[in-house]
Specification:
Number of helices: 7
CATH topology: paralog of FGE (formylglycine-generating enzyme)
Number of strands: 13
Distance between the termini: 137 Å
Largest sheet: 4 strands, mixed
Number of domains: 1
Structural class: alpha+beta
Strand content: 5-15%
Helix content: 10-25%
CATH class: Alpha Beta
Radius of gyration: 32 Å
Order of helices and strands: HEEEEHHEHEHHEEEHEEEE
Bound molecules: calcium ion
CATH superfamily: paralog of FGE (formylglycine-generating enzyme)
Length: 374
């Protein structure tokens, strides 16, 4: 009997171990893609934050500018002793009287000026090619006309010199093509983070046009000084007699350090400051000392306080400045001083301090505020 031998089924071959997934090889493209997307997103974010053009006209509209109503009255205008800047003629002191009026609590900001430009399409003088008339007005009679190629839009920008020494005004301010209210230091600068700073690079006509659009007007010089004194009489500053930095806390935005080359920015602001950065004066008005010079309605003359009227003085009928090569260069009064003032150089940020400006000129430290009838 034959023994049946069971046929053995050969064992199934052991399953071939699966090849380890090619994790590295398959995911590299994905990783590279993610890295590329991440780098692109980071670049786009950086551009969005700091690199994209900044359009002040595309920003949110600010709340209306607050105004303060003042009763007017008699006050002591000017100073008994004009200090080192005698040609600015802030003496003699004398009794003056102004009627009731209203005045902006702050300087006109970039945000408010943008509202004006958005509504009207207004183009400031600094954004236009200078007229030959405006340039000729500042030249001594007989000087030749400037060549046409230098007549380009621009404005005066304060640029500190490299080191100490005597520097003429024209060595501290540079004519910068393309500088204007939207580009305070020139074409590569903008108003990012500065919409609440005072507008600068505005000529008198620009300030006057804004005021008319807003249903207001520029303050007279007398109104401005009445407002700046804040109800105080005979005080050195708009806040009283303490020095601007006494006690360690600065009371206004002026210059600290060695003018014009080294600004320590001790008050926190080497250039313009946002309005309301310092305490208001007794009438609730901000920046009546320092920050930016403010255009007034009056023509400038050095003898205004000698010959002018004492009641609601509106200034002379025309300007005259004997310190100019062309003394009839039309100039208007400016008040309040700026971030470039310091007791060692320009103390005209005091309430009686007078400034003056060629009506065709704008600069990086000149702005304005408005007034209105009651
Ligand atoms: Ca300052």
């Amino acid at each position: 009997m034959s023994k049946k031998v069971a046929k053995r089924t050969p064992p199934a071959p052991a399953p071939t171990p699966a090849a380890p997934p090619a994790v590295g090889r398959r995911r590299w493209p994905l990783v590279l893609l993610l890295l590329w997307v991440g780098a692109f997103a980071a670049g786009a974010l950086a551009w969005w934050l700091v690199g994209r053009p900044f359009d002040p006209l595309a920003q949110a509209a600010p709340p209306p500018a607050a105004m303060v109503s003042l009763p007017g009255g008699k006050f002591r205008m000017g100073t008994p002793d004009s200090e080192r800047d005698g040609h600015f003629a802030d003496a003699p002191d004398h009794e003056a009287e102004v009627g009731p009026f209203r005045i902006d609590a702050t300087e006109v900001t970039n945000a408010h000026f943008a509202e004006f430009v958005r509504a009207t399409g207004y183009v400031t003088v600094a954004e236009q090619k200078p007229t030959l008339e405006s340039v000729r007005a500042g030249l001594p009679p007989g000087d030749p006309d400037p060549p046409d190629e230098v007549l380009v839009p621009g404005s005066l920008v304060f640029v500190p010199p490299d080191g100490p020494g005597k520097h003429r005004v024209d060595q501290r301010f540079k004519w910068v093509p393309g500088a204007c209210w939207k580009h305070p230091e020139g074409p590569d600068s903008d108003l990012r983070g500065r919409m609440d700073h005072p507008v600068v690079h505005v000529c008198w006509a620009d300030a006057d046009a804004y005021a008319k659009w807003a249903g207001k007007r520029l303050p007279t010089e007398a109104e401005w000084e009445f407002a700046a004194r804040g109800g105080l009489a005979g005080k050195a500053y708009v806040w009283g007699d303490e020095g601007p930095g006494d006690g360690g806390a600065w009371r206004c935005n002026i210059w600290q350090g060695d003018f014009p080359w080294r600004n320590t920015g001790g008050d926190g602001f080497p250039r313009t400051a946002p309005v309301k950065s310092f305490a208001p004066n007794g009438y609730g008005l901000y920046d009546m000392a320092g920050n930016v010079w403010e255009w007034c309605a009056d023509w400038y003359r050095p003898d205004t306080y000698v010959t002018g009227s004492r009641k609601d003085p509106a200034g002379p009928d025309s300007s005259f400045d004997p310190t100019e090569p062309n003394p009839t260069l039309p100039k208007r009064v400016q008040r309040g001083g700026s971030f470039l003032c310091s007791d060692g150089f320009c103390s005209r940020y005091k309430p009686y301090g007078r400034g003056k400006g060629d009506v065709f000129s704008a600069a990086s430290h000149i702005g304005f505020r408005c007034a209105a009838n009651p």
